[in-house]
Amino acid sequence: MLLYFLLLFIGNNAINKEIDEVERKRLEHMNETTHILKNLLQNYNRWLRPNFNKKPVIVSMSVLVDSIGPIKETENSFRLDFNIRQRWHDERLKFNYSSDKGITLSHDFLKKIWIPDSYFPDSLSEMKHDVMVPNILLRLQPSGDVLLSARTTVISKCVIDLMYFPFDIQTCKLLIETYGYTTEDMIFKWSTDNSSVVVNQNITLAQFDLFGHNSLEYNLSFSTGNFSDLEIQFFLKRIFVSHFVQSYCPCILIVIISWTAFWIDPRNTPARAFLSITGVLTLMTLMRGVNSKLPNVSKVKAIDYFFIISILFVFAGLMEFFINSYIVRLRKFSTPYTPYSEKGIVYWTINKFTLIPEYIKDIDPVKIDTYSRRVFPFSYIIAILTYFGVYVNILQEQMNK
Hints:
Layout: H1 2-40, E1 57-72, E2 77-89, E3 103-105, E4 118-119, E5 123-128, E6 136-140, E7 145-157, E8 169-178, E9 186-190, E10 197-199, E11 208-222, E12 225-238, H2 241-258, H3 269-292, H4 302-333, E13 335-342, E14 345-349, E15 355-357, H5 358-361, H6 365-400
Parallel strand pairs: 1-9, 1-10
Antiparallel strand pairs: 1-2, 2-7, 3-6, 4-8, 5-7, 6-7, 8-12, 11-12, 13-14, 14-15
């Protein structure tokens, strides 16, 4: 029993010594960090950039995109939530440190050092997240490298081209630019570790599929000098299924319903007129409803062509009804007009002011309806297949670019 208590005492003593050693190292590390931060900014001028009057400072950028959307066609804008990371080297912030992990600091320290004046030139509004505290990461490395990461939400311009709607592909851009420093003072570059732009794979949009992105570097010239710019391009393909169900299917069904007039007796004028005229008015209302959700543009959209084709087919059916009705009326009420003949053709008349050749009177309205039952569906199917073939090919060409 005595041996047991002796071993327990020795073990507890060793553990306490180990804890004391860990605490001693922690206090030494904290005191070292406090001493470094006190002396680091003694002769530091945050109003001047690193390498002042020397080579330009290189700011390496990377962006982690958390979410995209909504994309508003009526406002030509899109929303982007992302983390932007900026890295640069400041020789004045070099220090000797026992650890190579660097020092992670509070966002308040930003007020004491120089930081790049990056901004988003195409933004309509911006928001920095500050719940519960400002979402900012600041890290100093002993070598003088600085990392600044911030979570940001930007609503930026996105010019929407609706010419091929709803077979369109849109390119929305996020621009990052330096506001005051020309390329003689500061240059923006994307990071070279293959992670300059990372997009969350779980992003879902209501009307679009994100199928790619690209990052660019270039300079822009203004009257005040040349400025460094970075650009992210997001390639968005519109989801077609919803538009097919909500617009194309009702349009096709309305055209098909208008053809039921070909099975109605040509003498039943009210029923045939109701179907044809209602079809035209319904298609125009449907077309107006689709366009009311989109901005007014000078170009004719792809969906407009489909509505026009459908309206023309319903209108052609209406014209077929008028011709049939006129022939029925002619066969019922016309009489020979003997005082007038030309090249052996006998003319008939309903009144003395309308002369009709006899062969028109002999046309059978029922036969016209019989031919229309075949010609109209066949022609409409050919028109639909041609329409979708052309625009699917255009969509493929856009994606290949």
